[in-house]
């Protein structure tokens, strides 16, 4: 390795040593097939690249990719078959129930301790909001299921109404 660290009688830098190791590794792994690209092939391909004559602010060796055009058959239409929902059915979402909410000043928030009561904007017995990823999808009431809390949906918001609420 000591003789590998010298090139033309000069000590090699760490970067040059690393480059030499990579070059040796690449030569060893090469199988001699036509699929590999030599430096000459690379240089020839770069020489063939035409410089940009437009003053678009891009370097000369950067060209815009051509836009692909799709025929009408490949574009989805509303009349065609429904999209495959199987791809999204296993995506996890967060579902939460909101009893109510209120706004208080930070001064009052800092004074809260065990036993404090916070008044909410909901009346007792009023249905809870059911939220999926923060979006209201239903209303329901609290029930007990095997010693755990559950919620019985009493009103499900229609998809059209959900979209209207999102646009507000």
UniProtKB/TrEMBL annotation:
Chief location bin: membrane
Membrane topology category: Peripheral membrane protein
One BP term from GO: chemotaxis
Keyword tags: Bacterial flagellum, Cell membrane, Cell projection, Chemotaxis, Cilium, Flagellar rotation, Flagellum, Membrane
Gene Ontology molecular function, alphabetical: cytoskeletal motor activity
Basic and acidic residues composition-biased segments: 1-20
Positions of the UniProt region annotated as Disordered: 1-81
One CC-aspect GO term: bacterial-type flagellum basal body
Stored NCBIfam families: fliN
PANTHER family, sorted: FLAGELLAR MOTOR SWITCH PROTEIN FLIN, PTHR43484
Function of the protein: FliN is one of three proteins (FliG, FliN, FliM) that form the rotor-mounted switch complex (C ring), located at the base of the basal body. This complex interacts with the CheY and CheZ chemotaxis proteins, in addition to contacting components of the motor that determine the direction of flagellar rotation.
Family: Belongs to the FliN/MopA/SpaO family.
Name of this chain's protein: Flagellar motor switch protein FliN
């Amino acid at each position: 390795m000591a003789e590998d660290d010298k090139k033309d009688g000069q000590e090699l830098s760490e970067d040059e040593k690393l480059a030499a190791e990579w070059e040796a590794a690449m030569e060893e792994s090469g199988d001699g097939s036509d699929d590999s690209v030599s430096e000459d092939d690379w240089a020839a391909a770069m020489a063939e690249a035409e410089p940009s004559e437009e003053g678009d602010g891009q370097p000369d060796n950067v060209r815009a990719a051509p836009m692909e055009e799709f025929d009408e058959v490949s574009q989805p239409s509303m009349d065609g078959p429904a999209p495959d929902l199987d791809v999204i059915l296993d995506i996890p979402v967060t579902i939460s129930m909101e009893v109510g909410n209120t706004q208080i000043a930070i001064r009052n928030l800092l004074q809260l301790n065990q036993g404090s009561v916070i008044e909410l904007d909901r009346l007792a017995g009023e249905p809870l909001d059911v939220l999926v990823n923060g979006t209201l999808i239903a209303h329901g009431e609290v029930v007990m299921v095997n010693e755990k809390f559950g919620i019985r949906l009493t009103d499900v918001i229609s998809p059209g109404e959900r979209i209207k609420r999102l646009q507000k």
